[in-house]
Amino acid sequence: MLRNFLTVGGWTMLSRILGLVRDQLLAAFMGAGPLQDAYQVAFRLPNMFRRLFGEGAFNAAFVPMFSTVMVQEGRDEARLFARRTLGVMLAWLVFLCVLGEVFMPQVLRVIAPGFLQHGDRYAMAVSLSRITFPYLVMICAAALLAGVLNGLHRFGMASAAYLAFNVVGILAIVGASPFFPTVAYAAAWGVTVSGVVQLGLLAWACEKAEFGLMPLWPSLTPRIRLLLRRMVPGLIGSGVGQINLTVDTIIGTLLPAGSVSLMYFADRINQLPLGVLGAAAGTTLLPVLTRHLSAGDIQGAHRAQNRSVEYVILLTLPAVAGLLVLAGPIMIVLFGHGSFTEHDALLSAQSLRAYAVGLPAFILVKVLSPAFFARGDTRTPVYVGIGVLVLNFVLNLLFMKPLAHVGPPLASSITACVNVALLVVLLLRKNALVVYGTTLSHMGRVCLAAVVMGLGLWGVGCMVTLPAIFVTRAVWLTGMVMGGAVFYAVLLHVFGVADLPDMLARIRGRLRRRAG
């Protein structure tokens, strides 16, 4: 399980790094203003579908059913189920895409009401959204193919294919911009083209696995109906984080121009640990839990759940400490160039700190939700999700005036913490979660190590401030990050969380085996 966790996490990390390069280009070319706001809103709508389907409701409903059919009825029946599902999905998505293209002005009135005050920004957002919206058809179909590959325990290619989004996006911004009116149009076309590339790569991977998935004519068989019943409520239960971010965007359009952009770039940094750990945990845990439960191994499911929580806490808490201390330098070094000023970077850093507070909760939601989904329960997360959505909206309204661009991120973090608390209580009541004493002890010592590491970074930052020259700034930030990582590893050894010499020996042994 840890190997699969690290495989998915490694590919996702590479994708996030390329995504960071793409975002740096967007910031440098468009800055934080009306044009950037229009593009980010145009990207938010199909991207929300990508997160919901690729990492949320569809994956949560489809993977357990696919894995169960594979175990109980064989490979051929599982392939037939996947082909039928793909046919139904494509029919629905194409219909939804056509509606979106026709009624995009009305859609933008809902998700970007603040743009109506500025006609040019609204018109630009409508045009860009019509370019990016077909992306949802390709990427949701790609999510199905990735789910099949995950069900076949081929996690590598399913994760690697998502690199195409950022690779194509970078090429579009750098190479295609001269052929379009603005960089925003080139970036928008890059989004849609990347969906075609990702779908093609995953289809090729399925063929290579001798599991080709030519879609069948749409037919609502009993098994497809069951899938839909489990999937539709899960759109809220599993995707509450993305829906909350969309609410943040709606509120952001009502704030001063540039607020949407400030929150977007902060969220992109927050997404580095969130996307890597959240996607890895959710993707690898769900099939494992389903397999244990299908075999009647309840203790095995509990052990897998506890291990996932330990991995997430171990890797998330130092990221929180680092982001809280180094948010300003991170945003300045990564984005404070070209049209994105140093002042913009510092404002965005305020949003980043607000997102970072809720980072463990954002990821733990992805670890706890599979405990419901693997048992076929998609209703409970829905009820929790509805309550959390209402709370997020109320907090956004309370925070938007006094906190401006910090309000929506802080509201999302608070609601994520409430979400986790409710899920834990409900799982404990259902006896679907057993938290071992060793896990609690592990979490406490990891928390202490992260706090000490954060205080150490803060102390060093007070003594050695951020230089003025970009190169020395980059060196300073790299040294702080690497130094913090080493210090954290030493603290884990001191507090008995990990055996550092043993870890180093294992890494050297693995490197030697690969070299051999």
UniProtKB/TrEMBL annotation:
Instruction: Write down the membrane topology.
Output: Multi-pass membrane protein
**What are this entry's molecular-function GO terms?**
lipid-linked peptidoglycan transporter activity
Q: Name one Pfam family in it.
A: MurJ
Which keywords does the record carry? Cell inner membrane, Cell membrane, Cell shape, Cell wall biogenesis/degradation, Membrane, Peptidoglycan synthesis, Transmembrane, Transmembrane helix, Transport
User: Subcellular localization, per the record?
Assistant: Cell inner membrane; Cell membrane
Q: In which pathway does it act?
A: Cell wall biogenesis; peptidoglycan biosynthesis
Biological processes annotated in GO: cell wall organization; lipid translocation; peptidoglycan biosynthetic process; regulation of cell shape
Primary subcellular site in the record, as a coarse category: membrane
Output the superkingdom of the source species.
Answer: Bacteria
Q: Name one GO cellular component term.
A: plasma membrane
Q: Which residues cross the membrane?
A: 89-112, 132-152, 159-180, 186-206, 227-251, 271-290, 311-335, 355-374, 381-400, 406-428, 448-470, 476-498
Q: Which family does it belong to?
A: Belongs to the MurJ/MviN family.
Protein purpose: Involved in peptidoglycan biosynthesis. Transports lipid-linked peptidoglycan precursors from the inner to the outer leaflet of the cytoplasmic membrane.
Task: Name it.
Answer: Probable lipid II flippase MurJ
Q: Which organism is it from?
A: Acetobacter okinawensis
